[in-house]
């Protein structure tokens, strides 16, 4: 099944669109099976279903921040609320630019007596509106993720030490730790880990079935992963051997 879905993804990226009838004939499976594959790809920000087939979303290997922020929103909200309980008055935090971390930023209105450092443009705007003391890292903005990256941001991170760093992940299927799509964001996340006395990673369970290019930490290097109940038992058991796993 996964091999078939990977093939469909590659065809979508290459051709821009694809028909259910063509795929059903090629794989010798039912149209309903192909529709389920397309639903899966749509949920992971790769395709948009249309009548009789699907089209590739722009930036299909890395969905836009806008799309990521509304995908699996219910699960991300639960994860964010769980993470919120880890934040105490007077704490200093690092928040990255992940969409689940953004959900946490939107929940921080009740924690105004904190200091936040972030490379997330959207998160910084929300935190500033709440009146939270917020420092945004300097550097280049990656438009697809709204994340600030580069040497300026890395230099900023080397100058600080915070109570808690909270990071997102793009996926970790078959990997030994959380991953992200590109090297520039991986470097930032690794530096954030170094700057945090404690590190929490937030990621809805779909990330356990999603591949991303660069592993920015081992599970043993973080203190906790917060995810949702859709995560598979096999993956959960592997992670629990190396760090705290909280399922909401």
Summarize the structure.
By secondary structure, this protein is an alpha/beta fold.
* Oligomer designation: single chain
**Annotation field: number of helices:** 10
Give helix and strand order, one letter per element, not per position.
Answer: HEHHEEHHEHEHEEEHEEHEEEHE
| Rg over alpha carbons | 19 Å
Q: Tell me the β content.
A: 15-25%
Q: How much helicity do the residues have?
A: 40-55%
Structural class, by secondary structure, is: alpha/beta
User: Low-confidence runs (pLDDT<50, min 5 residues)?
Assistant: none
Question: How would the blueprint of this fold be written?
Answer:
Blueprint: H1 2-15, E1 17-19, H2 20-27, H3 31-43, E2 47-50, E3 53-56, H4 65-70, H5 73-84, E4 92-95, H6 99-107, E5 115-118, H7 121-129, E6 133-136, E7 140-142, E8 147-149, H8 151-158, E9 162-168, E10 179-180, H9 183-195, E11 196-202, E12 214-215, E13 224-227, H10 233-240, E14 244-247
Parallel strand pairs: 4-5, 4-9, 5-6, 9-11, 11-13, 13-14
Antiparallel strand pairs: 1-3, 2-3, 7-8, 10-12
How would you portray this structure in words?
The protein has ten helices and 14 strands. It is α/β, with parallel strands linked by helices and 248 residues long. It has two domains: 2-56, Winged helix-like DNA-binding domain superfamily/Winged helix DNA-binding domain (Arc Repressor Mutant, subunit A, Orthogonal Bundle), CATH 1.10.10.10; 67-247, Rossmann fold. The strands form four sheets. Strands 6-5-4-9-11-13-14 form a seven-stranded parallel beta sheet, with helices on both faces. A three-stranded antiparallel beta sheet has the order 1-3-2. A two-stranded antiparallel ribbon has the order 7-8. Helix 10 links the parallel strand 13 (224-227) and strand 14. Helix 5 (73-84) crosses helix 6 (99-107) and helix 6 (99-107) packs parallel to helix 7 (121-129). It is elongated and about 60 Å long.
């Amino acid at each position: 099944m996964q091999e078939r879905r990977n093939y469909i993804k590659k065809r979508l990226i290459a051709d821009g669109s694809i028909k259910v009838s063509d795929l059903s004939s090629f794989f010798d499976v039912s149209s309903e099976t192909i529709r389920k594959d397309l639903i899966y790809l749509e949920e992971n920000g790769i395709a948009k279903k249309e009548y009789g087939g699907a089209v590739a979303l722009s930036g299909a290997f890395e969905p836009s921040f806008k799309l990521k922020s509304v995908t699996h929103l219910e699960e991300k909200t639960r994860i964010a609320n769980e993470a919120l309980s880890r934040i105490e008055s007077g704490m200093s935090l690092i928040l990255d630019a992940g969409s689940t971390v953004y959900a946490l930023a939107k929940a921080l209105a009740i924690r105004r007596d904190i200091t936040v450092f972030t490379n997330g443009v959207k998160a910084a705007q929300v935190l500033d509106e709440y009146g939270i003391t917020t420092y945004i890292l300097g550097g280049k903005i990656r438009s697809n993720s709204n994340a600030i990256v580069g040497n300026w941001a890395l230099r900023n991170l080397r100058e600080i030490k915070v109570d808690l760093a909270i990071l997102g992940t793009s996926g970790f299927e078959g990997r030994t730790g959380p991953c992200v799509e590109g090297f520039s964001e991986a470097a930032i996340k690794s530096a954030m880990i170094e700057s945090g006395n404690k590190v929490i990673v937030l990621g809805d369970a779909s990330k356990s079935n999603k591949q991303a290019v660069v592993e920015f930490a081992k599970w043993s290097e973080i203190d906790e992963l917060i995810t949702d109940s859709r995560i598979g038992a096999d993956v959960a058991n592997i992670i629990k051997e190396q760090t705290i796993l909280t399922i909401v």
